[in-house]
Amino acid sequence: MAPTNASVEDGKFRDMAKDTVELNGEQHMTTDYGIKISDPDHWLRVGDDKHTGPSLLEDQIAREKIMRFDHERIPERVVHARGTGAFGTFKLFESAADVTTAGVLTDTSRTTPLFVRFSTVQGSKGSADTVRDVRGFAVKMYTEEGNWDIVGNNIPVFFIQDAIKFPDVIHSVKPEPHNEVPQGQSAHNNFWDFIYMHSETTHMNYWQMSDRAIPRSYRMMQGFGVNTYSLVNKEGKRNLVKFHFTPELGVHSLVWDEALKIAGQDPDFHRKDLISAIEAGQFPRWKFGMQILPEEKQDDFDFDPLDATKVWPEELIPIRYIGQLELNRNVDEFFPQTEQAAFCTSHIVPGIDFSNDPLLQGRNFSYFDTQISRLGANWQELPVNRPVCPYMNLVNRDGAMKHKITKGTVNYWPNRFETNPPAKPAEGGFTSYPEKQSGIKARLLSEKFAEHYNQAQVFYNSLSEIEKMHLAKAFSFELDHCDDPLVYKRMTERIAAVSLELATTVAQNVGGEKPSKALKPNNGATAKGLSQLEYMPEKPTIATRRISILIADGFDYASYTAMKEALSSLDAFVFTVGAQRAGVTAETGEKVVPDHFFSGMRSTLFDAVFVPGGKHVETLAKNGVAKFWITESFAHLKPICGVNEAVKFISRQIVLDEIEVAASGTPVTESYGVVTGYVDGKSLKVDKVGPDSKGLAEQFVWHVSRHRNWARELDGLADQIAA
Ligand code: HDD
């Protein structure tokens, strides 16, 4: 007779949509043990109409409600506590069967569901989104062979080489132990002390001081697996590999003053940005690519390919793009989905393997352990973590919060019934790559790990002028916040190991030692893929760009509606910001209900501003908030556009000789991203978007698609306007 203790699952793939329930007016409120509640608003107590007497402990409904609430928090992540996530899909457009057997990377007919969580590293769960920090980019693919997690960042290298240093680097950057300060910042003594003490941090520190650490949106940043993994093909040949995600919308950042302000004005800026884009059907997409290095070539470079503080230069090892990641479904409930999402670098599927990257090896211990402490031994049974393929393990039966009910009398292998047998490799069983190992037992890293400045110099040399300016400002801001002279003086000396010019500027700003010579001569080398300005969208686009239109009573309805339609038709998110939300009346009598009123929003929360013509400019000119909207947009390098009467209003807020605005009757003048003109409202059309576009709306759109007007800052104009 067949044993009755067979298996644990019905062997089918799980439909993730069935993990949710939707509450509606038909379903009565119950306790968690199921009885219907008749009065959820009052504790059971003794008394009468005149006297409220003592509350009764007998009230099991009230007691359970309060006691459950008392335990509603779980430990926040020790790093990356602040984050947000979404579901999506992975599609492969080219099979990588030559290098791997992993179905997710070889079967082009599959659509693999996935979950991504973006995060900041330093701040606690309630900190602000736009702080200067590395962003986490953690991907969980629910493949047919099990879950595959790529737990990456938006920066391709890491601070340290050996995982044993992780608690030190994190302690140094987190709020200091004596006063729990600062929150959401690396600008403090301990962090910079650590950076000085560990020259291996230099490369990542430059990335972190660059604009990469203040992204405009999660949708506009790259993702990197950072660590080196392996791919193994069906002949058993192994290649080393690094994983890349490159955003369709390009890589863009905020400017620093804006990031600082948004942290207070809208601490949820990035999570709202992601949610609203997905809600609008503007699904963010990333190309998925791999850098592949045959294992026999791993000694061919002047760096060790297993060192996570080094990039693999694209000139030497090109990225092969083979797939696309799309995010297309917001979570239904934050806590069970995003907060309880749990990733493990050790979760790989057959065809993918680890490497001897010493950081990865340590990470492989840490993540499973942290999930047990945050969520308990059965964390993988939670819906967001559960594989979609059948999973069944007769040994894992106990532990807090066990959900899955497994029938049968045995919970060990081998057993007399041969229940739940392992799979042979030919049946899809995971096997580790049989890498030959030899060596002495010692606390060591190979000698190439000892070189720490070369790639930091290449990174610095490869940045555009504007990015170098931002980097100098970022170093200066951070070191200015260090009040221990030992810290900022040593650090300015250390910067001279990468660039004497940068070290001199920073020393001047923060009062450090001005170095007399470079600590290490600059190698003068540059490489591609490091400056983020290289990552513009393939076709110019303003999709999902937040554009504000300022209006007050007496605005010109024709230019307002024509511009709004032109921008909306290109999928921009257009917001009317009016003197009052109760309604604003046009010169010709039409009434518009704005999305916001002047003081409810700030220019910082938009990518560009348009001011239609009309008599309303007289009101705008008397409103400090409306005026500051223009000056602040200018200082933050944002495209500004105005027509007819608005031309004068705009020019009065930006009083600089270099900025030209349209002379009376001139159809369009463009100057440093300020686009002005005298046009008939109806002519605001966009037929094409490009550098040689002629029309007023077209030129405005072109500048919005370029993100920011860097020339304004390079030529020293932005700094002259107070924001
Ligand atoms: Fe880590 C979380 C990324 C090194 C230990 N890490 C965490 C998350 C991301 C990264 C994106 C958040 C995942 C989520 O959204 O839930 N970590 C990285 C990258 C690293 C890195 C790209 C370098 C290549 N991490 C690293 C080391 C260790 C850890 C060397 C320990 C030895 N990381 C953790 C952790 C966390 C974590 C303590 C905290 C919460 C969690 O795991 O789930 O285990």
TrEMBL record:
<dbReference type="GO" id="GO:0042744">
    <property type="term" value="P:hydrogen peroxide catabolic process"/>
</dbReference>
<dbReference type="InterPro" id="IPR020835">
    <property type="entry name" value="Catalase_sf"/>
</dbReference>
<protein>
    <recommendedName>
        <fullName>Catalase</fullName>
        <ecNumber>1.11.1.6</ecNumber>
    </recommendedName>
</protein>
<comment type="similarity">
    <text>Belongs to the catalase family.</text>
</comment>
<keyword id="KW-0376">Hydrogen peroxide</keyword>
<dbReference type="GO" id="GO:0046872">
    <property type="term" value="F:metal ion binding"/>
</dbReference>
<feature type="domain" description="Catalase core">
    <location>
        <begin position="30"/>
        <end position="421"/>
    </location>
</feature>
<dbReference type="Pfam" id="PF06628">
    <property type="entry name" value="Catalase-rel"/>
</dbReference>
<feature type="binding site" description="axial binding residue">
    <location>
        <position position="367"/>
    </location>
    <ligand>
        <name>heme</name>
    </ligand>
</feature>
<dbReference type="InterPro" id="IPR029062">
    <property type="entry name" value="Class_I_gatase-like"/>
</dbReference>
<dbReference type="Pfam" id="PF00199">
    <property type="entry name" value="Catalase"/>
</dbReference>
<keyword id="KW-0349">Heme</keyword>
<dbReference type="GO" id="GO:0005829">
    <property type="term" value="C:cytosol"/>
</dbReference>
<dbReference type="InterPro" id="IPR002818">
    <property type="entry name" value="DJ-1/PfpI"/>
</dbReference>
<dbReference type="InterPro" id="IPR024708">
    <property type="entry name" value="Catalase_AS"/>
</dbReference>
<keyword id="KW-0560">Oxidoreductase</keyword>
<comment type="function">
    <text>Occurs in almost all aerobically respiring organisms and serves to protect cells from the toxic effects of hydrogen peroxide.</text>
</comment>
<keyword id="KW-0479">Metal-binding</keyword>
<comment type="function">
    <text>Catalyzes the degradation of hydrogen peroxide (H(2)O(2)) generated by peroxisomal oxidases to water and oxygen, thereby protecting cells from the toxic effects of hydrogen peroxide.</text>
</comment>
<dbReference type="InterPro" id="IPR011614">
    <property type="entry name" value="Catalase_core"/>
</dbReference>
<dbReference type="InterPro" id="IPR024712">
    <property type="entry name" value="Catalase_clade2"/>
</dbReference>
<feature type="active site">
    <location>
        <position position="80"/>
    </location>
</feature>
<keyword id="KW-0408">Iron</keyword>
<feature type="active site">
    <location>
        <position position="153"/>
    </location>
</feature>
<dbReference type="InterPro" id="IPR043156">
    <property type="entry name" value="Catalase_clade2_helical"/>
</dbReference>
<dbReference type="InterPro" id="IPR010582">
    <property type="entry name" value="Catalase_immune_responsive"/>
</dbReference>
<dbReference type="InterPro" id="IPR018028">
    <property type="entry name" value="Catalase"/>
</dbReference>
<keyword id="KW-0575">Peroxidase</keyword>
<dbReference type="GO" id="GO:0070301">
    <property type="term" value="P:cellular response to hydrogen peroxide"/>
</dbReference>
<dbReference type="Pfam" id="PF01965">
    <property type="entry name" value="DJ-1_PfpI"/>
</dbReference>
<dbReference type="InterPro" id="IPR002226">
    <property type="entry name" value="Catalase_haem_BS"/>
</dbReference>
<dbReference type="GO" id="GO:0004096">
    <property type="term" value="F:catalase activity"/>
</dbReference>
<dbReference type="InterPro" id="IPR041399">
    <property type="entry name" value="Catalase_large_C"/>
</dbReference>
<dbReference type="GO" id="GO:0020037">
    <property type="term" value="F:heme binding"/>
</dbReference>
